[in-house]
Structure formats: structure tokens, C-alpha cells
Amino acid sequence: QVQLVESGGGLVQAGDSLRLSCAASGRTFSSYFVGWFRQAPGKEREFVVRISGSGITTSTADSVKGRFTISRDNAKNTVYLQMNSLKPEDTAVYYCAAGLKPGSSPRWYNYWGQGTQVTVSS
Length: 122
Hints:
Low-confidence stretches: none
Helix content: under 10%
Mean pLDDT: 96
Number of helices: 0
Structural class: mainly beta
Number of strands: 11
Largest sheet: 7 strands, mixed
Oligomer: single chain
């Protein structure tokens, strides 16, 4: 029903920026909340930021406030994550996910992308 593909990850230095993209299929994409999550080796998947179908940022993790910005272009069926002032602690696989409920837990999201690796060196 909805398929998501992340891209834009890579290896960067601390303080650098990256923009991740989440390309979605499905004509009802604009109806979905989209969240970004990340998972570091040996750690649980954690919520990063979420955006509503209308483009409102409904929740942001304290660890990325002021540095990460989520946006969406429904005409392109794409959600973006602009990451600035990256820190080594941001190193993780980043996933986008879509769901119909405004929760921060992974359990609320029905569709997931395959993930894209972000590595930040010090």
C-alpha cells in the first residue's frame, strides 16, 4: 500500500550537514504521518522527528532539536530530513516510516523504508 525508500546517507565530519530523503509510493501518501527513526548498533530504534500530512512538525526528539528539520513535498511524495551540526552521536541507520496515528513509538508505523547509514566522524 505504501512503500518507502530512504537515501542521502553517508560519511561526514562532525559539524557537517546531510539531507536525507524518503521517497514514497502510494496515492494516499499525504494522509500519513511520517516519522524518522534511527538505530545505532546495539541500541534500540529511537524516534527522531515526525511530520503530519499537512506539513506540521508534531514531535521532535530533544537530542536533535535545533539541528534537524523535517519537511515534506506531497506533490513529489517525498519527506526530507535536513540534518545540520551533525555529531558523532548521530551515527546510526536512519529509517523513515509512515502511519496514520501521531505516535512516537515504532509500533504506530505500518510502513518502513530499508534505512540509510549516516556516519559522523569526530
